Amino acid sequence: MNTIKFKLSGDCIMLQNGQTANPRNQYAKRLKELNKDKKRKGADVDAILDKMADVEVESCLYWRDDMGLYLPADNIRAAFIDGAKLSRGGANVKRYCFVTGPAKLEYTGPQDVAGIVADKQFHYEGIVKVGMVKVPKTRAVVRDWSCVVEIGLMPGDVIDERDVIKYMTDAGLYCGIGASRTYGFGRFDVQVADAKGKFPKRKSTAAAAK
After folding, report:
1. Where does residue 114 rank: exposed (0-12), middle (13-18), buried (19+ CB within 10 A)?
2. CA–CA dist 188, 9 (Å, integer)
3. Count of domains in the chain?
4. pLDDT per residue over 20-45, tens digit each?
5. Is residue 204 part of a domain?
6. How far apart are alpha carbons 40 and 200 in whole angstroms?
7. With a cut of 50, which residues of the chain have pLDDT below it?
8. Enclosing H/E stretch for 79
9. Rg of the chain over CA atoms, in angstroms?
10. 159-191 residues labelled b (16+ CB within 10 A) or e (exposed)
11. In 3D, which of 63, 182, 59 has the Cα closest to residue 123?
12. How far is residue 61's CA from residue 140's CA, in Å, rounded to a whole number?
């Protein structure tokens, strides 16, 4: 089984875990209670909105105590498939490639959940439409990020290493990873590790994929 190691690097990625869609989720319950508090007579609405923003950001994070902030393998795979679809390779990627695991996010700033939530540079404020009503929402963003991912390639002659490099490169250039990709979030540059697992300096895969 051949594996290809990539380093993905970007300016700004938006994270949106989506776990609050489950009404039994701890963050969903906290947001529900804060919404109730906001409607009470004499409530400090601004303070409650600030608390809601913090809860929303925390709920967006992908976090593991043994890894810290990370990108799930499913997100990486989805981005990789999107890049492959541009060359009609999506079906082959689904059949013959796999992501070996989640990827730790490298970035400058707090390395714990509380610190990230408290640092406003990780907050992205926006207005979204829920039903017929527009409401403020806060999402988590990470700036100047990078991560190392590995793509496994099953043996055979249907898809080769050059195809994999092209698909990942196209994913970074034209598709992105994470949330709000259609708005330009999550675009990334790609570097390919050499035989020793080292990444070249200041060299993307744009040339390698030609």
Report:
1. exposed
2. 5
3. 1
4. 999 999 999 999 999 999 999 999 99
5. no
6. 58
7. none
8. helix 73-85
9. 19
10. beeebbbbbbbbbbbebbbbbbbeeebbbbbbb
11. 59
12. 7
